[in-house]
Amino acid sequence: MKAIVCNAFGEPLTLEQRPDLKAGPGQVVINIEAAGVNFPDGLLVAGLYQFKPPLPFVPGTEVAGTIAEVGEGVKHLTPGQRVVSVNMLDGYASQMLTYPNLVMPLPDGIPVDEAAGLITAHATAHHGLKQRANLKAGETLLVTGAAGGTGLAAVQIGKAMGARVIACCSTTEKLALAREHGADELINYTEENLKDAIKRLTDGKGVDVVYDTVGGDNFEICARSMAWNGRLLVVGFASGDIPKLAVNLTLVKGFSVVGVFWGTFTQKEPKVFASNMAELFQWYLEGKVKVVIHASLPLEQAEQALKIVADRQVMGKVILKP
């Protein structure tokens, strides 16, 4: 097998040839056909993420492919079966050794490339809007970074849940993509004052739910633009700036600030996660959500893939193909 390896934080990644994996008792081996690239992957290899795995390690959290081998005691998975898997590490490779509870059968009708991009971004948006925000039909949802992987997913899922969606992006091209995928209103914050635009589009009421993937200066503007009983979801910091919150705003405006850490959610609430994924798969088959692939690159170009995502050049998802 081949794998992309991080040997030192902040240093170039290396492509290594390794022995093929073998499944032990209660384990499975997946032949990876596609792996999703996510913004946190870049933070991880730079040593800037919330946790630092022991070195060396193989980055990558979401994969799609087929079962190569199952170990003793694994009953519900069989060799050759199409699957997706989510793991904290080991996705940037041609094979992954993992456990059955982290593997889900992939329904027919979902291409493997899109399946690899459906897990982290869409599942984060789904968990954030459903469990953390309790988004209701008819509410207003503002999505920052609305053309990125999880931002675009939030636009789609917000519409599927019946919300009025306001997409916030930095370019006309990105906004056009958000509109194509269901956004009702558009804000180009490089051309229009964000606070004024939110006030105009909500008739001064403010936003019920903000799905913020960017952080930075716009976070405070969003905090000052919340509706009563609103929920401001902290999803990520693509701007590179972790903002500070004037907590008196939550008092006088009566809104909640809610963290969305999907990785921990999958570990602490695996049954809810599985239910969420079943709903996402069904929405995909019904055409309510779709994975937009910005680029599919060979595994050897993992560094380039991470740079594209880190530079916020992506509209949709970047996929690696072992």
UniProtKB/TrEMBL annotation:
Gene3D superfamilies: Medium-chain alcohol dehydrogenases, catalytic domain (3.90.180.10), NAD(P)-binding Rossmann-like Domain (3.40.50.720)
Signal peptide span: none
Residues covered by the Enoyl reductase (ER) domain: 10-320
SUPFAM superfamilies assigned to the protein according to its UniProt record, in alphabetical order: GroES-like, NAD(P)-binding Rossmann-fold domains
GO molecular function: oxidoreductase activity; zinc ion binding
InterPro entries tied to this protein: ADH-like_C, ADH-like_N, ER, GroES-like_sf, NAD(P)-bd_dom_sf, Quin_OxRdtase/zeta-crystal_CS, Zn-ADH-like_protein
PANTHER family linked: QUINONE OXIDOREDUCTASE-LIKE PROTEIN 2, SHORT-CHAIN DEHYDROGENASE/REDUCTASE
Official protein name in the record: Zinc-containing alcohol dehydrogenase superfamily protein
Organism, as annotated: Simiduia agarivorans (strain DSM 21679 / JCM 13881 / BCRC 17597 / SA1)
